[in-house]
Amino acid sequence: MHGVGEVINALTGADLRIERLRESERLPWRRWRSMTPAEGGWFRLPASAPRIPLMYALLARKH
Question: In the chain, how many domains are there?
Answer without folding.
Answer: 1
